[in-house]
Amino acid sequence: MELRGQGLVGKELKDAGDRTSHEFLMHALARHRPGDVVLSEEGADDRARLVAERVWIVDPVDGTREYSEPGRTDWAVHVALWEKGDLVAGAVSRPAAGVVHSTDNPLAGDSVDAGRIRLAVSRSRPPEFVSRLAEILHAELVPMGSAGVKAMSVVTGESDAYVHAGGQYEWDSAAPVAVARAAGLHTSRLDGSPLVYNQPNPWLPDLIICRPPVLAAIREGLDKL
Q1: Quick check: pTM over 0.90?
Q2: Helix %, strand %, coil % for the chain, to 5?
Q3: Which domains does the chain have, with CATH numbers?
Q4: Within the chain, which residues score under 50 in pLDDT?
């Protein structure tokens, strides 16, 4: 947040934000959990994580495009903890909005009855996949910034589902998925299989985060694609 007010713009601000947040998180985790391994978007992949019992999966700035645009609040910081095979804790911080969603306080809200399913989608590059799904479901597209913000919009009830088929890295979704689970939401791959983290290749092809009442409709829509 301090960097945003220091005159940096564009790529220079994006890179500085990523670097500063990464260094802060690495220092904090090394100090408080020195025996744990960290997988960060901005750091080298420490392969020791593949035999570790505890691995932190972090995205220092999720949504650098939004971070670099003055006044935007739809970017986030992701911190998740994987332990012995699954996510056990996580937090999605939105510093510009003054909000932190975490597994012990997901800030869940009731879904607003909008009359039709609302799908969270990228504000700058809505994927054709979600646009076609929306047509099938007669759903409303709700544009917003980073992946974490989209996922948290489902938690708070601003949208009903976040469906992504374009692939992401583990740090893009680990913390949002952990928080969404804590809020009682459905999380899975598009085919219904579990989202698995701390894999040798940290690439996840697709995911669904949704409110349970809309899951059946979304599955029916996916079958028609």
Answers
A1: yes
A2: 35, 25, 35
A3: 3-102 (3.30.540.10), 118-224 (3.40.190.80)
A4: none
